[in-house]
Amino acid sequence: MSGITNTHDHGMSSFCGLLENLTGISRSGSRDIGGVGIDIIVETIVSFMNKNKKHARVQFHCCRALSNIAALSESNRCIIAEYGGVNSIFGVAESFSRDEFWEELVTYSILCCIVSVPDGQLSIAGNVMKYVFEVMGKYCYSDKLGILEYTCGIVANIPIHSINFVGQVYSDRNIKIVIDVVNAHPMNISIQSMACQALERLSIISDVRDVLCSMDGIRTIIRAMKVHPSEYHIQLSCCICLWNISTDSLQHASEIVHQDGVGVIVSAMQSHFQSDKIQKTACGALWTIFANNYQSEKQNFEEKFTPIDHKSVIDAVICAIFTYSESTSVVENVCGVLSVLSMQASNAATLTTNGGIDALIETMRAHIHNSTIVEYICAIIRNIVVVHSFDDTQIKIQMIHSILRGMREHPENRLVQHEACDALWGLCTAQDHVQVKNEIIANKGMDLIMKVLKHENEDTHIIVRKTLESLIT
Prior knowledge:
about 75% helix; about 0% strand; single chain; mainly alpha; two-stranded antiparallel sheet
């Protein structure tokens, strides 16, 4: 233990060793240790560390004691953050030689103290993250897996809005280090999990995404998903990464498609059907990928998506909407995916044969108070009846009832009214339009459509006039 024998204050080090032992045997959730409040103990430990920076044994025992306290509860970690415990731990790295022993102790202790600390409660000194990335880079290709796991874990858990965080990580070198860790240890589940969580955190920063992708980050993420299909944390973090990366970027979304990203996302949904988080994030990623590709060149929509097995995508998202019918976030993202895919005739046809329409109508009934879900389902219905011909009049009547109910529920929401009128127009142009029109009129649909004119939007007025004309001709 490098430097440990150099201390001259045996009484102080013995006391700190006692603190380490007491905190190590405390029960999870304890609000005191030996009758003394956690806040008093943390304040004392931090004070010892700040006043005895050159005393190796004091620093060693205090780091271990703070790690023990942090492991007991999230509230304890918030107390440590309040008293500046993380910065005091980092002071150990500055005071002693940066050898493996101290680097493992410091990175482990920092990680223990920051997990789940709420954003805004953690103040980190400007050079802490610089140190973390230096240590990660130093051991990237080594067998010191503990240090790599701790450093990746720190990056994964630092609140994104902590002071100077963006400035500390926004460098090509730091981003490449994390990608290199993933690639250097492809079969180690713990490293893969923590490193992918680190990439997830980095991908939140919009300026980082281009750098990450330029370093083959998309290929790295997809490879990790393929190698570890059953590992929940890896799949979840990678789905979030792909969601973030594809947001507002045609180039990134297209690269994900090219690298078979859609296939691995669908596989994640199928392998982890019991996880609502994976269903939500996977559908969110699919939505942004498809939407960006479609918006880039609408006339080539069919050609751009031809290589993708759309049926497997649609089956997966319909399964998600059935399984998590009460989850607003899952349902919203599923509807987002289908609002794009239903623009293609073959996909619309799939929705009419795999139970998709029934699922959408039932979902609209269950979430009638959610304007976003109502809006997107109206858009899907419009797409289906316009690009694909089907003759089930009873289903169309159910669609009409759901649409009109949505219009009554959200009279002030222009987007809902717009999409609802567009869907009604699509139904009025179908082959069985006479019965459809009669159903709309009989349920006072004409009055509802007229009321939409109060929304001062030219595009909406055009849709309203088009719908009214189709009803009366």
